[in-house]
Amino acid sequence: MKTSTLVGTGLATAATAAAGSIATDPNSAWYRSLDKPAWQPPPVAFPVVWTPLYASIAFAAARALDATSSAAQRRGLRRAYAIDLVLNAGWTALFFRAHRPRLALAELVLLNAANAALLRRAWRADRVAGATLLPYLAWTGFATALNTAIALRNPGR
Fold first, then answer.
1. DSSP string, 7-56
2. In angstroms, rounded to a whole number, what is the distance separating the alpha carbons of residues 3 and 11?
3. Which domains does the chain have, with CATH numbers?
4. In whole angstroms, what is the distance from residue 134 CA to residue 75 CA?
5. For FRET with 47, which of 23, 55, 92, 120 sits at 20 to 30 Å CA-CA?
6. In the Cβ-directed half-sphere of 58, how many Cα atoms lie within 13 Å?
7. Three-state SS for 68?
8. Residue 58's closest CA among 81, 77, 30?
9. What DSSP state is assigned to residue 98?
């Protein structure tokens, strides 16, 4: 894997993480007032989980990009990666800043589709890169279940 590719994917992923971190406010009165399921992890769990997930996304993207020989496949992988990062950051803004759990859930469905597309492209380029993305997909699957539960428990919000 080329250092320059990893630096590029690392910076893009770090920007996504920073945007998400800035938008997240688990201590807001709005968030604290939501009816959340008992299986909701404590707020401290989220950065603990997301930090290695973001690192794995950057690593997987760099590895897959460097393993892709065709310029067209590389462009497609870059596009899938960029779309995924935009949707990743967008969920946080919709949920925490716009206070729209249902809209955030709809966006999360799109993120899951983007995750699957990114996984497919990464897996074709390099199986290690694809396998590295599996925990990210598992976590966003969990996030979908949690967002669904919150949206259902808070119908007027």
1. HHHHHHHHHHHHHHHHH--TTSHHHHHS---TTPPPTTHHHHHHHHHHHH
2. 12
3. 3-38+45-153 (1.20.1260)
4. 22
5. 120
6. 22
7. coil
8. 81
9. S
Nearby residues of 30 by Cβ (< 8 Å), 6 or more positions away:
99
C-alpha–C-alpha distance, residues 70 and 86, integer Å: 24
pLDDT tens for the chain, 157 residues long, are 899 999 999 999 999 999 999 999 999 999 999 999 999 999 899 999 999 999 999 999 999 999 998 999 999 999 999 999 999 999 999 999 999 999 999 999 999 999 999 999 999 999 999 999 999 999 999 999 999 999 999 998 7
**Tokens describing residue 75:** 């462009």
Amino acid present at 30 = W
The residue whose two tokens read 């925990």 is 135
Residue with tokens 């009165």: 29
Residues 154/139, Cβ–Cβ less than 8 Å? no
